[in-house]
Each structure stands twice: as structure tokens, then as C-alpha cells.
From TrEMBL:
The gene is hisC. The keyword Transferase applies. This is Histidinol-phosphate aminotransferase. It comes from Amphritea atlantica. Its EC number is 2.6.1.9. SUPFAM superfamilies: PLP-dependent transferases. Keywords: Amino-acid biosynthesis, Aminotransferase, Histidine biosynthesis, Pyridoxal phosphate, Transferase. The modification N6-(pyridoxal phosphate)lysine is found at residue 210.
């Protein structure tokens, strides 16, 4: 620590993503990446990009991508914002909208990046516990607030909140902005994007990192009323006017165009998730119903930390959280069918299973 650190930085515990190992003999089921490669069209688009043009600055507005996203979601160009991964889009949104006089409300168990950003930007916030079944109960959010954020489906629980409940929340909170983080929406969830047409207090954030297999290109986006998007643009342009590089822009456009590949790979993941859930349940695990590309699960008699270590020593990397209340749970990303078979076979060999 340096004496020059600001008070906000001093109390900050940075968000630590799951381990990114430097060796490749591990089955990596810890950071919710897609087990399949990106669409061949993405590779082709990047290969065909005239490399001499990398000399030039990229399009600061990422016009081609914003237009593709607008067409894809049947929205206007001015309803779309793009950034360097949804983490950056979230960060800019926290800066733009959440430093209010009343506290931001968020679930107690959710994406841990949110409270990191509250601390960094000195945003007052209140964490609302989930139900015993890990559901978000919006009646607990009936209190004065300067905004609401949650992930739908939620992470790390995987549970989805119904669209009509989100709509009621928007109606009850006409004076507040509600951000719905839909990082995992494409694995069977119901998106709040359609609510954008009727509500100016909802911002939906999505990513190319999960369902489009492009975590390494860093592409996220927000959809919402044009005044919200203008607010994000204002912060972005004061911060980094070139959030997406030229290759990310062409790669993302190509990914969006390959609808068949998207549907096919996501369906494989959904089928494999349902198979994995059934297998884990047969082995005595409790599995929270998931609409994502991961499962949140615990065993009745073995601690989460022990199971994580056991799997690690068998070259399987999964995510464990030491947070009280969920310390016995593991979050396991859905890999290929073969990887999940290895996971189940390895678990069967544990002496207490
Ligand atoms: N939101 C949630 C709920 C996530 O789990 C993640 C991935 N860690 C993100 C946002 C950020 O994803 P990315 O920055 O790769 O778009």
C-alpha cells in the first residue's frame, strides 16, 4: 500500500475471476467459458481483415457492430452501447447512473463485481438476501433506492427470475434505473430486452463471452432507452474513446450473423447441463435449477472446499466461493459431453460418494 492510495482504493478487495491456469492439461470448468470454438465465420472475418489497417485507429463508435446489434434485437442504433466486455459496460454504467443519494439495491449473492464497483466509486449500496432456494424476491426491494442491479439468470446460483416479476419491479421503481445483467441469458432464459420498448428505466447488459464463445475478444453491450445510452457514451468518451479494437468489431459482427452455429452450440450446452444435473442428483448432490452454462451444486456430506481440492487433484478445475452461506457449493461450468462425463466419473470415485 502506498500513502498515495485514495480511501476508496484502501478499502477495495478487487474482484478476482476464477483461476486462469498456465498449463493445458486441466479440464477448465471454473470461469463459464464456452467449450466450443467461436463460429468459423468469426475466424474467417478476422483472417480477411486487411492487416495494414491495424495501423489506423479503430472506429470509436463501433458503428458496424452497433448496427448489427440493433438489427438483431429489432432496436434503433441509438439504443445500443458496446464496450470491452460486459465488465467494462457495467463499470461505465455504475459510474454513469448509480452514484445517487439513496442506496443501490442488489442481491446479497450475485456477481461479486457489483460491490467492488460500489466501493471503488463510493456508491452506497444495500445487499438483499436471496430466499432459502436462492431466488430473488422482489418484494424485499420495496424500499427507497437509487437504482437496482441483478443478474438474470443470477450468478453463481444459475436461477432465473420471471419476466413479469421484472416488469412489476420496473413499474414500482419508475424513478430508479434497473440494470439487468443478462450475461447468461442465451442458455434458456427469458430476456428483458422486449421491455425496453415500454420502459425507459431498464438497461439490459449482455456479452459475447459466453454463448458466442468470444471471451478472449472482450465484447459486451448494453441495450436501453436512447437517453441511457447517451449517458454511457458520455462516460465512455471521457474515459476511453476506443473500447473495441478493429478485430473485435469484425469478429463480433460475424458471430452475430451465424445464427445456426449459435443455436446449435447453445443447445448442446443446455442438453449437457440437463444431463449433468441428473447425474449429480443421482450421486446425492443438491443442484439448483439452472438456466445458464453452469450448475451450482453442493453435496450433503462433503464440504465445497474439499470437493474443489479433490477435483483439482484430478485435473478438474471448478469454482468454489468461501462466502458464508454458499461455502459448501461449487459452481461448475458446462463443458463438452466428454468433459462432463470425466467429471461425473471422477466424482463417483470419491470415497464418500
Ligand atoms: N456478468 C456476469 C454475471 C458474469 O458472470 C460475467 C463473467 N464473469 C460478466 C458479467 C462479465 O463478462 P465479460 O466481461 O466477459 O463480458
Amino acid at each position: 500500500m502506498s500513502k498515495y492510495w485514495s480511501p476508496a482504493i484502501r478499502q477495495l478487495t478487487p474482484y478476482v475471476p476464477g483461476e486462469q491456469p498456465k498449463v493445458d492439461n486441466l479440464i477448465k470448468l471454473n470461469t463459464n467459458e464456452n467449450p466450443y470454438p467461436p463460429s468459423p465465420r468469426v475466424v474467417e472475418a478476422i483472417n480477411n481483415y486487411p492487416k495494414d489497417r491495424l495501423r489506423l485507429y479503430c472506429d470509436p463508435d463501433a458503428t458496424a457492430l452497433k448496427q448489427s446489434l440493433a438489427n438483431h434485437f429489432q432496436l434503433h442504433y441509438n439504443n445500443v452501447f458496446v464496450g470491452n466486455g460486459s465488465d467494462e459496460v457495467l463499470a461505465l454504467a455504475f459510474m454513469a447512473f448509480f452514484r445517487q443519494e439513496k442506496p443501490l439495491l442488489l442481491p446479497e449473492t450475485t456477481y461479486s463485481f457489483y460491490d467492488v464497483y460500489c466501493k471503488l466509486y463510493d456508491i452506497e449500496y444495500r445487499q438483499i438476501p436471496l430466499t432459502d432456494d436462492f431466488e430473488i424476491n422482489f418484494t424485499d426491494y420495496d424500499q427507497p433506492n437509487g437504482g437496482i442491479i441483478f443478474a438474470n439468470p443470477n450468478a453463481p446460483t444459475g436461477r432465473q427470475t420471471a419476466l413479469h416479476e421484472i416488469e412489476t419491479l420496473l413499474l414500482k421503481n419508475r424513478e430508479s434505473l434497473v440494470i439487468v445483467d443478462e450475461a447468461y441469458i442465451d442458455f434458456g432464459g427469458s430476456s428483458a430486452v422486449e421491455l425496453i420498448h415500454n420502459y425507459d428505466n431498464v438497461l439490459v447488459i449482455q456479452t459475447f463471452s459466453k454463448s458466442r464463445s468470444l471471451a478472449g475478444l472482450r465484447i459486451g453491450f448494453a441495450l436501453g432507452h436512447e437517453d441511457l445510452i447517451a449517458g454511457l457514451e458520455r462516460v465512455k468518451n471521457s474515459f476511453n474513446s476506443y473500447p473495441l479494437d478493429s478485430l473485435a468489431i469484425v469478429g463480433a459482427v460475424a458471430a452475430l450473423e451465424d445464427v445456426d452455429y449459435f443455436n446449435e452450440t447453445n443447445q448442446k450446452i443446455i442438453d449437457c447441463r440437463d444431463w449433468t444435473t441428473a447425474q449429480l442428483e443421482q450421486l446425492g448432490f443438491r443442484v439448483i435449477p439452472s438456466k445458464t452454462n453452469f450448475v451450482f451444486t453442493c453435496h450433503q456430506s462433503i464440504s465445497g472446499a474439499e470437493l474443489m481440492q479433490y477435483l483439482r487433484s484430478n485435473n478438474l478445475l471448478v469454482r468454489h466461493f468461501s462466502k458464508p452461506g454458499i461455502e459448501n457449493f461449487l459452481r461448475i461450468t458446462i463443458g463438452t459431453a466428454a468433459e462432463m462425463q470425466t467429471l461425473i466419473e471422477t466424482l463417483k470415485q470419491h470415497p464418500q460418494i
